[in-house]
Amino acid sequence: MISSLQRQLHDRPSPVERPAPVDVVVAGAVFVCSFPGSLFTLPGGPALQWWPGALLTGVSCVALLWHRCHPRITVTVTVLCATAMAGMGHVLSILLLGPLMVALHSLALRTDRKTANSFTCGGIALLVSTALIVGPAGEPLVLKLVGPAAWLLLPTSLGTANRLRGAYLEAVRARAEHAEHTREEEARHRVTEERMRIARDLHDVVAHHLVLANLQACAVARQLPARPDEAARIVAELTGTTSSALRELKATVGLLRNSDDRDPPMEPTPGLARLPELAASFQHAGLTVAVTVEGEPRPLSAGVDLTAYRIAQEALTNVTKHAAARSAEVRLTYSAAGVVLAVTDDGPAKKPGSPSSPGSPDSLGSPSSPDSPDSLCPSGGYGLIGMRERAHSVGGSFRAEHRGQEGGGGFGVVAELPLQAERAPL
Length: 426
Fold this sequence. Notes:
Layout: H1 2-11, H2 21-39, H3 50-63, H4 71-88, H5 98-110, H6 113-134, H7 141-144, H8 146-223, H9 228-253, H10 275-281, E1 288-294, H11 302-322, E2 327-334, E3 338-345, H12 383-393, E4 397-402, E5 411-418
Parallel strand pairs: 1-2
Antiparallel strand pairs: 2-3, 3-5, 4-5
Helix pairs in contact: 2-3, 3-4, 4-5, 4-6, 5-8, 6-8, 8-9, 8-11, 11-12
């Protein structure tokens, strides 16, 4: 607060502030132009001495030296000088009113419209009344009424117009700065959304392939003493699983490369066309996945296609980690409005410490406690949250529910997605 007050005091014009060189030049030029007006009288009028008018004109021009810092005082001084000359019998011509016109323009430029109009109307009333009362009797009425009013209203109007134009340009500049700031905020927002999308892709890739690799490694440990041939086959499948994980990981992380990197991604973005391949990958973990398609398949946007694939991948991965199920079903139902993706399993939740599942909680967010009915339970973990946010990011909806005994037991998730994404997918 103290620094703000010091800055305001520093910016406030000082009463003894020295006039700028340009103001000295303007005052001198106005005096040169106004001095002849102080000598002008009507033909046949009384003879006037030259020095009173010259003195008053000089005082008016000297007052112009401070028209920037004290515009009201400058106008007051010039009005009084012009009124005194009008009372002495001088004609109120444009030359005589020159200092007052400059002062009124400066006042209108630096103050509000009400102040400028008040000083202008007050000056006109004072000059006109003085000219009518004590002015030369033979002076035409138009010079006493119309002339002063017209010459004094003109600089006030010009000063107000210039002030409004300056305020408009300042507003345009402020809007441009605000627009630039908004663009920067939007760019940062888009970067954040892109990071979230990449983080979710990394989560899906790592979760899916590492769970399968873990299950295959456990199977190798069990089969190796009694069935070495079967263990060797599982090891070969484990190699394929880790290779696939590396390929998808490189393709996802490749999005973070610089824009000048011309190397193409390792493999295309996955979509529903790779559902059979995804279902087959879970056979090594002892889970049979059936893919069913209803309705006529319709083309999906890239965002919706990727979102549907990732939801199916996350759901099946969580079934493998936490549901004691031997089979699961992925059902795609196409319609004119979009596609409905349903993933269901037929088994209860695994108990901690089971041979196919480590006893520790899932680090990726899916619940593994005995109280959780299965891996897709809405009461815990980040698996459902991630799938729900993916569906909402493209304008779809998501729900998860227990199937119960009538539905065959187990758990299921349903994602209703449009054909075209309403927003960029996360």
